[in-house]
Design brief:
heterodimer, A: alpha+beta, 9-stranded mixed beta sheet, 5-stranded mixed beta barrel, about 25% helix, about 35% strand, globular, B: alpha+beta, 7-stranded mixed beta sheet, 6-stranded mixed beta sheet, 8 helices, 21 strands
Chain lengths: ~575, ~600
């Protein structure tokens, strides 16, 4: 990426009058730069539609924004030494936001459980052709306006019938405007070399005959976003994502599916680890899955456990992160675990949690949750959510909540969905740190103290689900893939399969005793109302005095009836 | 967007090296035939693993009696553009495997019942390998897929037996027809495309619409797929044929002053995408679509009408595709669980064999051997397509059939061309040729139309020159038409007329918009009064969806319908009474740069 200029323009109120002028003077790009055609066309059509609608539409809009997401993606995958998928695609999606009413009450008002959806992520030209783009912007603005006006009228009727909401905050916050121009990076993705790499890497799985499926996939995405709103914000920015994903699965004799995965992420493909490092991960995944097919099954258990840094990151993301997303605090259908807890101790005092989209790299790993601007054109800012165990802040988009009037740059979306507040880089820090060895000794002490036969070590967790809706049980379930029993009597650790961590959030946090002194990074994609967004979770390993696991609901399918052709050989 | 086609059409270039081997000679010659052809690791892997998978067995449960594999290699390209700007350019190489496992025997197996699609274990299977370096890896995929299909089939047949304890079937039919082995091996000659040329062509053709600032929306999409279709079955059938297809869609819409959205589309197909239509042709088509849409937007709204309608030119084969082509088969009702409902509807011509369904001067053939777009050598079940005489002197003689036994028939005639529910395929015509022994020149037909309306005191008659088939309607609009048809109680409605004209007694024509047909179905064929001395060839891809709605349905079968213009009496048209969208609040942006 080229260096960029950030220009803070004016306050919202002053801006209404002079926004375009101020903008033009401060940072208009050189006219001959074709990469600015998109943003300039957006800005012009934005103003034309806004002016036209303010004159003629009833109710008139008070705010308009356009976001175009340009995605240039490349995927290559191979299994057992041969390619099984090659895909290249280039797309641009348009998201239009129209706000009618006023910031106090507009068409985005959260009404109990209702999912707001106006935008459609319409496909627009990938060429920088103003004529075609203007036509799409115009039609999509008209369509979104009609849906927006209709909802506002419905809400106003609803408002008169229902009792007042407990949260009395506005529907839209006033924010500063930004102008930021970045020439989209031209990253080269050497597909010929990567085809050979994934072939070679995936071939290593041939030495694990018990695997039923395995894949090595490399994907590369250049994501450029163009944003303009009627307050004068003009942002053109982006980043790249390179990723290697290694997966393998098999079946244990009792039919349970077992699998493992490993992944590597970097902003630039040249920063992905060397083939040797990836090869070692392939071997580790192969070994893990083979070991899992014969591992003991988990038994229901309550007792002490260590979560590795990566596992702990996922744990925090699921059971804490989703519950401090701002918009959930004002939706009456949400569980609102932490809504009233600001200023209260919710974690042990040696723990702090920050969400920081401005950090690019930690512990030698590029972070997936890094971005400069969110999908409302707001600059991404660090949010100290928990300081020394005390809840201080929520993740905010431009949808304010009581006591939190402003965005902190966490309004995010997948193209085609409406923005809500989402996580970025979750970073857990600790002041009670010990070495990994010490943490393990503490686990063994805890096992003895609680008089348990063993404790657990969660090495890797792939995913989890959490219920935040009020109508559901306020619980979570995370799906660990690599779990060991740790015995107090010095026996070697024992791999087990089919354990799911279950529990309720508040109880789980209070049982964290200590952490290690090394941070680990988990990069992934998080799915919620506004779609899939790239995120990271960074944490040291944590020791928990009590964790609950249940048996996974497992398949009872038989193993394949005939031997694998790979083991039979040519016949 | 055009979904990537499951199968494309065959190029003319590769209709060589066809070897048809008789049943008796097959056992001796089959292997030799294959050796003589191009080496094909996928084909070899399919045969080896098929043999092994036929030995699948579990306890004392049913054994496989039929197994077929097909693997289609596809090299697909598509480019879409609007007003000179490229929206997308996609290229995609993949292999699509399909497996058909039957356990039990031909009389009673795991299909033809609503639970026929029980899934076996998934084994984390993803994509079929697209490279041939390691044949064992190709077999690994087929091994797991077969194992999974076998276990799924065992579950299906067990549940079917259980269901049959509680329901009685009105008529017992076998579940699958045996078919003699068939071998057809072609060499493969890859079709070369230059995607950049395609992209540029899409841009330039779409830019033609900049000449029509009053249009609301417009676009051009070019797509092509070059495919190699392979099929093997345990009955000894082996097929390896190249199938390619090129498609161009040129569309535009406009909004009339009352808010009605009018639209038109030109779709062009070719089975030789290497020599896709010339840019001059496409530009001409775009201009014609643009002009027509603006004429439609300015046209008055149609009115309710009952009387004779002249289907001139393409509208006649379009109508025939819907009311005749879609009804030329017999559907079989699957076994259901007690109280369960099956998705199947009776076709309108079922039970009418030997009955006159059209005036006696009509004959209908379905001839796959004609060198037209619908040409096909062998169907999806590995059965060669036979030329069929379907209607003789107006009397229904035969039906299009697959290997699914239906009432009165137990042999396929090779028309399994689309995937259907419950383990079966849907019969689809190939080249459906409708001919008339008595014909009149078009001016005479118009005169007859005027005579008729004058006799009946109607102010005008109707001429339809194009139907909305295949339809470019939105799903929403298509649903409205279907719902209106269901409310009228006439079964599945036909698509709406796109180019509809009033013909006044003085010979003057007036384009109208917003008309729909009411109650037009296979019975309307009997009300044909006259046939033209012309003959229009109409090509389309049948995808099984109502109105062959673009972007929906499952798979695609190339169909050609050839028919003369027809004058049909007593048809009902009604004007659309949907709520109309308002005109945009802000005027359209300038089309100038």
């Amino acid at each position: 990426m080229l260096s960029s200029i950030i220009v803070k323009i004016l306050d919202f109120t002053a801006l209404l009058a002079v926004s375009t002028l101020a903008f033009a003077q401060s940072s208009k790009p050189p006219a001959d730069d074709s990469s600015h055609v998109v943003l300039n066309t957006m800005a012009e059509e934005l103003q034309r539609n806004f002016d036209g609608m303010k004159k003629k539409a009833d109710p008139p809009p008070y705010f308009l924004s356009y976001e175009i997401t340009d995605q240039d993606s490349h995927n290559i995958s191979a299994s057992l030494g041969v390619l099984n998928g090659v895909e290249d695609g280039r797309n641009r999606y348009l998201d239009v936001t129209v706000r009618v009413g006023d910031p106090k009450l507009d068409n985005f008002r959260r009404v109990r459980g209702e999912r707001v959806q106006f935008t459609s992520g319409a496909a627009v030209p990938i060429d920088n052709t103003p004529v075609a783009l203007r036509q799409d912007l115009w039609l999509e603005t008209d369509r979104v306006y009609r849906a927006s006006a209709e909802r506002l009228i419905k809400i106003k009727t609803n408002q008169q019938v229902k009792t007042a909401d407990r949260d009395t905050s506005n529907d839209f916050s006033s924010e500063e405007s930004y102008a930021h121009w970045e020439t989209p990076a031209k990253v080269t993705f050497d597909s010929t070399r990567w085809k050979q790499n994934v072939r070679d890497l995936s071939k290593n799985f041939l030495t694990y005959p018990d695997l039923l499926s395995s894949d090595v996939q490399v994907s590369f995405l250049a994501d450029t976003r163009y944003f303009a709103n009627t307050e004068g914000t003009r942002v053109q920015h982006g980043r790249d994502f390179a990723r290697v994903i290694i997966t393998a699965s098999a079946k244990a004799k009792d039919g349970m599916d077992v699998s493992d995965f490993a992944s590597f992420e970097a902003a630039d493909p040249k920063d992905l680890p060397s083939s040797d490092v990836i090869k070692a991960a392939v071997k580790r995944v192969g070994e893990h899955v083979e070991a899992l097919t014969t591992a003991k099954t988990a038994e229901p258990f309550v007792g002490p456990a260590i979560l590795s840094g990566r596992a702990s990151g996922v744990f925090f993301h699921e059971i804490f992160g989703h519950r401090i997303e701002g918009h959930r605090q004002k939706d009456e259908s949400e569980g609102q675990t932490f809504t009233k807890s600001v200023g209260e101790k919710i974690l042990p005092e040696f723990l702090s949690v920050t969400f920081d989209p401005t950090i690019k790299r930690i512990a030698g790993v590029d972070l997936n949750g890094w971005y400069e601007y969110d999908d409302e054109g707001q600059i991404g800012r660090p949010v100290k959510a928990v300081e020394n165990g005390v809840l201080r802040n929520f993740l905010m988009s431009r949808s304010p909540i009581d006591g939190f009037d402003h965005s902190n740059g966490h309004g995010r979306r997948q193209p085609g969905l409406e923005v809500v507040s989402r996580q970025s880089n979750l970073i857990v820090t600790s002041t009670r740190t010990v070495s990994d060895q010490q943490l393990r000794r503490m686990l063994i002490d805890e096992i003895k103290k609680q008089n348990k036969p063993y404790g657990l070590y969660f090495e890797d967790i792939t995913s989890g689900v959490t219920t935040t809706q009020r109508s559901g049980v306020q619980a979570f379930k995370v799906v660990p893939v690599i779990v060991y029993r740790v015995y107090a009597d010095g026996r070697p650790d024992e791999l087990i399969r089919g354990a799911d961590i279950v529990g309720t959030p508040l109880a789980s946090f209070s049982r964290i005793i200590a952490t290690s002194d090394k941070q680990e990074v988990f990069n992934g994609y998080c799915g919620a109302e506004s779609g899939s967004v790239p995120v990271s979770a960074v944490s040291p390993a944590i020791l928990i005095s009590e964790i609950e696991i249940e048996k996974k609901d497992a398949s009872q399918d038989l193993l394949p009836l005939l031997p694998s052709p790979l083991s039979v050989g040519v016949n | 967007m055009i979904p990537l086609r499951r199968r494309g059409a065959r190029t003319h270039a590769c209709r060589v090296d066809t070897r048809l081997v008789s049943v008796a000679a097959l056992i001796l010659l089959g292997a030799v035939t294959l050796l003589a052809a191009q080496p094909d690791a996928v084909f070899d892997a399919m045969q080896a693993e098929l043999q092994r998978s036929m030995t699948l067995t579990l306890n004392q449960l049913d054994k496989p009696y039929y197994l077929s594999y097909s693997v289609d290699d596809a090299h697909a390209w598509s480019a879409a553009a609007t007003l000179g700007g490229l929206i997308s350019s996609i290229s995609n190489d993949y292999r699509a495997p399909r497996l058909h496992m039957r356990v039990g025997d031909y009389k009673f197996d795991n299909t033809n019942w609503t639970g026929a699609n029980a899934a076996g274990p998934r084994y984390g299977l993803r994509n079929f390998p697209i490279e041939d370096e390691n044949p064992l890896v190709l077999r690994q995929y087929l091994w797991l897929a077969s194992d999974s299909a076998f276990k799924g089939a065992l579950q299906s047949i067990a549940r079917k037996r259980a269901a049959l304890r509680n329901v009685t079937v009105s008529e017992e039919l076998p579940d699958f027809d045996p078919a003699p082995p068939f071998v057809l091996i072609h060499d493969y000659h890859p079709v070369r495309f230059d995607s950049k040329t395609w992209d540029d062509r899409a841009r330039r053709v779409s830019a033609v619409f900049s000449e029509f600032p009053a249009l609301r929306n417009s676009g051009v999409e070019l797509s092509a797929v070059d495919s190699l279709h392979r099929f093997v079955s345990n009955e000894g059938t082996k097929v390896r044929i190249q199938e390619s297809l090129g498609t161009v869609e040129i569309r535009a819409s406009a909004q009339a002053s009352d808010g009605m959205i009018v639209r038109d589309m030109d779709i062009l197909y070719t089975r030789d995408p290497a020599r896709m239509f010339t840019e001059a042709d496409l530009t001409k088509s775009a201009r014609a679509v643009g002009e027509q849409v603006l004429k439609m937007a300015a046209a008055p709204l149609g009115d309710n009408y009952t009387g004779p309608v002249l289907f001139e030119g393409a509208s006649s084969p379009q109508l025939m595709a819907e009311i005749l082509g879609d009804n030329l088969h017999i559907s079989r009702k699957p076994v259901t669980t007690p109280g369960g409902a099956a998705q199947s509807s009776t076709t309108e011509l079922e039970g009418r064999r030997g009955v006159r369904i059209m005036p006696e001067f009509f004959d209908v053939k379905d001839d796959p051997t004609l060198p037209l777009f619908g040409h096909e050598d062998v169907d999806d079940e590995g059965v060669p397509d036979k030329p069929l005489s379907l209607v003789e002197k107006g009397v229904l003689k035969d039906f299009l059939r697959t290997r699914q036994p239906v009432r009165g028939y137990n042999d396929s005639n090779g028309r399994a061309r689309l995937i259907a529910n419950y383990g079966a395929d849907t019969p689809v015509p190939t080249n459906l040729v409708i001919t008339a022994r008595e014909t009149s020149p078009i001016p005479d037909m118009k005169k007859k139309l005027i005579d008729l309306i004058q006799q009946r005191g109607l102010p005008y008659g109707m001429i339809v020159r194009k139907m909305d088939f295949p339809s470019s309607a939105s799903l929403d609009e298509a649903r409205k038409i279907l719902a209106a048809g269901a409310a009228g109680g006439s079964g599945r409605p036909v698509s709406m007329p796109l180019y509809a004209y009033r013909l006044y007694p003085d010979g003057r024509e007036e384009l109208v918009r917003g008309e729909r047909f009411k109650g037009v179905n296979a019975r309307s064929l009997k009300d044909i009064l006259a046939a033209g001395d012309d003959s229009t060839t109409f090509n389309y891809l049948d995808n099984g969806a109502p109105f062959a709605l673009l972007g929906y349905g499952s798979g695609a079968a190339e169909v050609t319908v050839v028919a003369p213009s027809v004058l049909i009496d007593d048809l009902e048209m009604s004007k659309v009474d949907d709520e109309l969208p308002k005109l945009p609040i802000v005027p359209a942006p300038a089309l100038a740069k």
